[in-house]
Amino acid sequence: MYTSPSSQILCYSPRVTIIGAGRVGSTLAQRIAEKNLADVVLLDIVPGMPQGLALDLMEARGIEMHNRQIIGTNDYADTTGSEIVVITAGFPRKPGMSRDDLLRTNAKIVVEAAKQAIAHSPDAIFIIVTNPLDVMTYLAWQATGLPRDRIMGMAGVLDSARFETFIAMELGVLPRDVKTMVLGSHGDLMVPLPRFATVNGIPLTELLDQATIERLVERTRHGGAEIVELMQTGGAFFAPASATCMMVESILLNQSRLLPVTVALMGEYGLENVAIGVPCRLGCGGIASVLELDLSDEEMAALRVSAESVRQNIAWAQEILMVSNATS
Ligand SMILES: NC(=O)C1=CN([C@@H]2O[C@H](COP(=O)(O)OP(=O)(O)OC[C@H]3O[C@@H](n4cnc5c(N)ncnc54)[C@H](O)[C@@H]3O)[C@@H](O)[C@H]2O)C=CC1
Ligand SMILES: O=C([O-])CC(=O)C(=O)O
């Protein structure tokens, strides 16, 4: 067989590590590989499980027509040199629980995962997915000591996609023609912004009356819980994986997309010592910039309430971690 000299050149492929190979993590691995964005390392504490998932995904490559490597592992050494680390490790909520009810169990998991991952990939950009999302993002930021441009949380893209879905369903239009921004925390106090929602450039407020918009806003606020109640065995994972993949893609391909992203604020919107969702430009270095929208008094008040609740939970999580460190 003839071997061309250029075939000797090793081609570089970016690597995305996903910590937590459960429903969100494994679906995200599939999306990243099948979109041909990067090689994927799937890490979980359960022995054999990420290895099995990785093999299954590898066996689909011929059919899906990509050649990405998917590695399953229980060892952080295999994550070395990742460009992006996504943390989905931790418990999902059960019916009747709020996301904040997961704080006690998930804080330690996320902090430990972030520390281990940064030790092996010091140049990586981190995306946190585990709930309660805003608190986990802030804790992971503190634990890694990363500049805030390189560590962010996924929630706003998902919440905006839900708002867009409900608007599209109401109007009978294509979801991709609807654009919205949902800011604030990933919980009942999130801040959907109908004033900034459009359908192919037409303001939403021209298309729907106030009562209908308010109904869709409320459904968006409870979008996660609606699925938890329907499924009874965990939460959403298809749309969360798609939303995370959109962020991964914007970073890997330096697309500079303007997306709602959870980030530690440093005076923007008059807020600091807290992480919540605000519009950010996402490119190859992570968060390229944070956009400060000119919010109305009412919108700003809602954002402050949302931030205050996250700040209280951060303080509570820090106490839990301190006690746990002291006793272990
Ligand atoms: N930010 C968002 O918008 C969303 C957040 N979530 C959150 O993402 C998290 C994961 O959700 P699912 O994938 O549905 O849960 P899951 O239970 O299917 O998967 C979680 C995985 O984490 C693993 N894990 C636990 N401790 C670990 C550790 N120390 N190191 C490595 N892996 C560990 C478990 O073995 C499990 O495989 C939950 O906290 C959920 O609430 C889910 C959907 C959307
Ligand atoms: O609702 C949950 O627990 C999972 C989640 O964050 C979402 O789907 O928005």
Summarize the entry for a quick read.
43% of the residues lie in helices and 19% in strands. The model has no long low-confidence stretch (mean pLDDT 96). One of its GO terms (molecular function) is L-malate dehydrogenase (NAD+) activity.
Overall description:
It is a single chain. The chain is of the alpha/beta class and 328 residues long. It has two domains: 12-153, Rossmann fold (3-Layer(aba) Sandwich), CATH 3.40.50; 156-316, L-2-Hydroxyisocaproate Dehydrogenase, Chain A, domain 2 (Alpha-Beta Complex). The protein has helices at residues 23-34, 49-59, 61-64, 103-120, 133-144, 156-171, 210-221, 223-231, 238-252, 297-327; strands at residues 15-19, 39-43, 70-73, 84-87, 125-128, 151-153, 178-179, 182-183, 191-192, 198-199, 202-203, 257-266, 272-283, 286-290. The strands form four sheets. The protein has a six-stranded parallel β-sheet, with helices on both faces. Strands 7-10-11 form a three-stranded antiparallel β-sheet, covered by helices on one side. The radius of gyration is 20 Å and the shape is globular. The model has no long low-confidence stretch (mean pLDDT 96). Oxaloacetate ion binds next to α8.
